[in-house]
Amino acid sequence: MVEDRHWSSRLFNVLNYTIIGLLALSCLIPLIHVFAISLSSSAAATGGLVTLWPVDFTFESYAYVARRAAFWQAMGISVLRVIVGVGLNMFFCIMCAYPLSKEKDQFRHRTLYAWYFFITMLISGGLIPLYMVIRMMGLMGTFWALVIPGAVPVYNVILLLNFFRQTPRELEDAAIIDGASQWRIMWQIFVPTSTAALATVALLSTVYHWNEWFNGILYSSSPDQYPLQSYLRTIVIDMKLTNMGANDWQALVVVSDKTAKCAQIFLASLPILLVYPFLQRYFVKGMVLGSVKG
Amino acid sequence: MKKLSAFLALVLALCLTAACGLGEAGLEKYAEPVEVHFVRSTDDTLDTNFFANFPDKTMEDNLWCDLYRDQLNIIVKYDWIVKSGDEYDTKLNTAIAVGDIPEFVNVNTLQLSQLVEADAIMPLEDIYEQYATPFTRQILESDGLSPFQAATINGHLYGLPNVDSSLMIADLLWIRTDWLEKLNLPVPTTIEEVIATAKAFSEADFDGNGEKDTIVGIAKDLWGQMFSLRGFFDGFESYPGIWVENADGQLVYGSTLPGTKEALKTLNEMYTEGLIDREFGVKDGGKVAEATTNGKCGLFYGAQWNSIYPLQSCVNLDKDAQWQAFSIVPASGKVVKAQTDVGTLSWTVVRKDVAHPEAVMKMFNLFIDKNWGPENENGIYYAPLDSESIWKLSPVVPTNPHKNDGAFLDLEQYRKDGDESKVKGEALSILKKLQAFESGSEDGFALWGWERIYGAEGAYGVLIDYYNKKMTQDNLFVGAPTETMVSKMSTLEDLQDEVFIKIIMGEEPVDAFDKFVEDFNTLGGEQITKEVNEWYASVK
């Protein structure tokens, strides 16, 4: 790349880096704040004395979390959910996107099928019908209620579909001449050449499964089935001060323990933080590539 | 409505005569095991205070379930359990909407009316008559009849109240007394003096940061149980959020009374003077607690338990700090009454097709008997030291509404005569806490909050004073929510809070209050007032 030495271009660069740097900081600071609270004493945290550096440094909250079986159980369920859920997502995504990426001469009712999927992005059944479906299928209170609904993420299918369509048709034609079946073309030509898009889709569904909490609460039949974010939800929401009974304050005392809360939030965000840098470069590339031909 | 009056009269009569053979079946053991299916919510207190100490116990296998099984042959099962109250409501509302109604379930009055409308639950007055023991009646009815009226629709009682105290949630005035002493100020007895005290605290700048930023603690949810405004408004003979009688004997909504305008005007002046946090409209209780903890707030309205949370962390940080709860005060020329509302928040209802609906009444009987009966084992089943929240393991939790003030009176007696042998049950475990605090040990200091409630200067003393001096204004509408209430009330409450916060912050003039009253009436308030008064006429 040729270095442009014009002053306006330099100014542009400086401003760009400053603004992006500030944006990055605004994402980072809350995390550091949470981390600092988790390492502070309870009184200092309640008093709002902690900003970016721990006050009365202590590991007590982490020792507390380490003893807390419910946290680790929820973590285990979340990890399992990501493995199974993302696995299912990827499988169905590829299986749907591949045929739908074909031209009309290869797949006659392609448009009809595409609409069949697309329409679900525009109109969803809503909470109550979904709840009824889950219940009638006997998924209530099972792990499968977390991964089977939404096993076909249509947005991801479209992303992948567009990527597949950019793969040169000549590759496919050549494979057909060599006698490859559609099945083989999909797995041995399209999938290996689409790693960027696949990584993007995998990241999107990993983030979804890791962060989703509402279904976790709605479809579970007891708190020991909660994935991590549902569990966190029950400890971080602020209690409503109106509508409390005379003896409900006990819950407030436990819930108000800021340091333990922050330790758990920090630990819960750690795995996804660690995954991001590795997939980030695919992520950016994949989004752009997949969406050009939208 | 005649039926309702007749029923209530009957209940009252039974209560007075504490009669006579009825309710003997109330603790009888079933010959065959009876399975009862509940759903429930749980919270962190059980995890922290019980399950952490007894990891092999579960919600369906613990001493309360054992007790119900051994004494009544009732097997408690849970179809589902949700953690935290808000999510419980979400899940239960969804379940009700799809018709997946649990056999036995604890609901609020809104859910109760929906279930009655859907014809899904059964009337329980006959079961109550037949199976409630005299002692259960005495406890359940000791907070007045409002817990029953709230669950009575078309003359039938649809829910058994998990009663809780109405008095215990009244507002008190919490003040930093070490600051009062330093400034040589008296305890305020009028609103004007409260403001003067707040001003003096602000000018004294106790945190020494050179700014007059010491505030009166107010949280964004205005009417909660800490950093509340209820007690302040009560001083202006305005009772926001509850229904009171006007001069004609009609019920009116407290928020629309003229006193409310005066209170708002005063708050606006305080805000302008910097006595209220500039951003109070967005700060929740936890955020305001930062101010009480780090010495930026020395005065606020709140409930009796506020010394345990959030004030305990204030004294942990600053050992010289001291707080005390005082009676709320009137604006000059006014009478002060602390507003109270029905303390009961949940009612146990029974699905129509359940074979043994009376099982739940038996569980009520046993729960009350074990915790507060003449031969209670409160120390084991209610709140033993190693597992404070153990009573929550029972699916039904009717509380003796007078257990806390009762314990306080027992302790007062003990402080007079020093006879520890007369202190029993919960009062005894509280006495242990007070003694630990007085020992001056470090562990004992963590119980400072308890001493502020049950000690000689304790908050309960003030609440009992309210009661004895008839210084309470009860909510006079205690029926099930009326039709228009169900559809409109929450919108009206949001409107009210929005307008009030704007007026206090000076974004709208004080006269915007008159517009609010008008809007309140046109947007459904008038219809609600009409319905409320119809109900009131029917129970008079």
Notes on the protein architecture:
The complex is a heterodimer of chains A (294) and B (540). Chain A starts with 6 loop residues before the first helix and ends with a helix. Chain A has 15 helices and no strands. In chain A, helix 4 packs across helix 8, helix 4 packs antiparallel against helix 11 and helix 8 runs parallel beside helix 15 (258-292). Chain A has 294 residues and is mostly helical. Chain A folds into two domains: 1-58; 67-292, MetI-like (MetI-like fold). Chain B is an alpha+beta fold and 540 residues long. Chain B has three domains: 2-166 and 343-393, 3-Layer(aba) Sandwich (D-Maltodextrin-Binding Protein, domain 2); 169-340 and 490-522, D-Maltodextrin-Binding Protein, domain 2, CATH 3.40.190; 403-474, no CATH class. Helices cover 46% and strands 12% of the residues of chain B. Chain B has 23 helices and 16 strands. Chain B has helices spanning 2-17, 44-51, 63-72, 85-97, 109-117, 125-131, 134-140, 146-149, 177-183, 191-204, 230-234, 258-272, 285-293, 311-317, 358-372, 378-381, 403-417, 425-438, 442-445, 448-454, 459-468, 483-504, 512-539; strands at 34-42, 74-83, 104-107, 152-153, 156-157, 160-161, 172-176, 215-217, 226-228, 243-245, 251-253, 297-302, 323-326, 338-340, 347-350, 472-474. In chain B, helix 17 packs across helix 18 (425-438). The radius of gyration of chain B is 24 Å and the shape is globular. Classes of the chains: A mainly alpha (294), B alpha+beta (540). The interface between A and B is large, with 48 and 63 residues.
